User: Fold this.
Amino acid sequence: MSRAPAFVCAECGAAHRKWAGRCDACGAWNSLAEDQGLSTAGPPGKSLGAAKGRPAALVPLAGDDAPPPRRPTGKAEFDRVLGGGLVEGSAVLVGGDPGIGKSTLLLQAAAGLAAAGAPVIYVSGEEATAQIRMRARRLGLDAAPVRLCAETNLRDILTMLDAERPALAVIDSIQTMWADSVDSAPGSVSQVRAAAHEITNFVKRRGGAAIMVGHVTKEGQIAGPRVVEHMVDTVLYFEGERGHQFRILRAVKNRFGPVDEIGVFEMTGAGLAEVPNPSALFLGEGGRRAAGAAVFAGVEGSRPLLCEIQALVATSTLGTPRRAVVGWDSGRLAMILAVLEARAGVSFAGLDIYLNIAGGLRVSEPAADLAVACALLSALHDAPLPQDAVIFGEIALSGAVRPVSQIEARLKEAEKLGFAAAWTPPSAALSGAGPGVRATPVEDLREFVLQVFGADHAG
Ligand code: TYD
Ligand code: MG
Assistant:
C-alpha cells in the first residue's frame, strides 16, 4: 500500500514525496509545505476491502431530471459566466489576485440576489463589518438586505449557516477560514482544503449555494485556489491588468454551464460596471490605427470579441533580441516568427519585438495567429493595415492558413462595429456571411505577404 505524500505544493496542489525548493508540477519556487491530515490515501496499513459495507445504490442512466433551479444575481455578466445564474446546491470558487475586485464583485452580486428577495449572508474573515459597510455605502448598496458576519471559525460559521439556511453564503476568503479539526495554520494547504471541503459538503447536504473567494498567491506562503479546484462545481477567475480598469471574469470549470465563457466589467469609482458590448471597449479610442496595429475578430466563450493587437519592432542593442509579450502566449509568438522566416522569408533577426493585446485582454485562441502575423509585418514595414479590416485565422507550421470556428459570428460582430472587410481563412462558411463585410480568404502566408507587403523576401 502506498504511503500518503508528505509534501504538497501550495500553488497547484501537486503531491511530493520529498521536499524540494521548486515544484516539479507547476514550477513555483518555495511552495512545498508539509501536508498534515487529509491525505488522498487512507491511513497506512488499513484496507477498505476487509470489512463489508452496505452496497451503494444504483440507478439507470436514463432519467428525467428537471434542470437544476437557478437564481439570477441581477448582474448579467456574472450570470452569463455562471451559465445563467447561481445553481441551487452549488459551490463556486472565485479566484484572483489580491486587490483585483473579488470582494467588490461578490458584494454586488450578493446585494443583487438579496434585493430579489433571497436571504444572503456575507461572511468575511478579512475585513471588519465596518469596512464592508463602508464599501457597501460607496457602491450605493447599503440598503440591500444582506447580512454580514465577521468570523473565521469554520465550525461557528457552519453552525450559523445551518440555523439560517441562506440562499447564498459568500465566504471571503477561503484562506482566512480556520477548521479546528485540522492542526495547521489558516491558509495552509490542509486548512484551505478542509474549509472548502466542509463548505462544499454543507451546500450539497443542506441546500443553498456558496461562493468562496480564493486569493491567488505568488509566494506560496498561503495555499492558492488551485488546491481546491477539484472539489467545487464551478471555478471562476477574475483577472485584469493592474493599470487598466477592465476586469474579466472567466469560467475555467463549470459543472452547470460552458467553460471559457467570459464576463466583462469596468472598475469605476462606484464599483464594477457591466460592459455589455466589450468589442467597442477593446478596440481602443478609435481614430486611425497606426502601423503595427491589427484588429483581431476573436471569440471568447459564446461571444465574438474584437480586439486590437499591437506590435512594435525596433533595432536591438542586445545579443539576444527582446521578445516581450503581454496578453498572448510567447511560445506561440516564437512559432509565428519561425513560420514567417521559414515559409515567407521574413526575418526579424536583430530586432526587438513587443506584442500587446490592447485593454489588458488575454487571448488564447490560435485564431489570432494571422492577426499577430499581420501586426508584426505591418510594424516591420511601417505600413498601417487597412483601417476597415478585421483579421483572423490559424497559421500552420507549413505556412498554410487554417479555418477556425464561428466564422459567421466573427464577421457579424465586425459588421456590427462598422468594419467592411475581413482577411479570413479559406472556408465554405464565408458564403453564408452577410453582405456587410467583404471577406478575402488567405490560403498561404507566403503568397499573402507578397501580395500585401510587396517585396518578395524569399526572393
Ligand atoms: P476588492 O474588491 O477589495 O479586491 P479583492 O477583494 O479582490 O482583494 O477591490 C479592491 C480595489 O478596488 C481597491 O484597490 C479599490 C478598488 N475599488 C474601486 O476602484 N471602486 C470601488 O467602488 C471599490 C469598492 C473598490
Ligand atoms: Mg477582498
